[in-house]
Amino acid sequence: MEANALQTYLGQPDVHRTILGGYSGPYSLGIGRDPRHSQPVLILQVISASQQRFPTEVLLGGEVIPIIVRTDFVPPRPLRAGS
Question: Whole-angstrom Cα distance, residue 62 to residue 9?
Fold first, then answer.
């Protein structure tokens, strides 16, 4: 699947729910490239304290899309007034 087509799925809440399962912490979900195959993949970043297992692939538009899970996500902090 091309990255442009994959982008349309990222705006769908059901896709996020499918990938995240019961996870309720901070996360980032985006599109990247698999360095081994140069194909678009989903990159899921979660905080390191997460003990939840996430899928390694998801079926979107009839195609199996790999998911790379990273546990190094640091949620952004709100700006303080006067910063």
Answer: 12
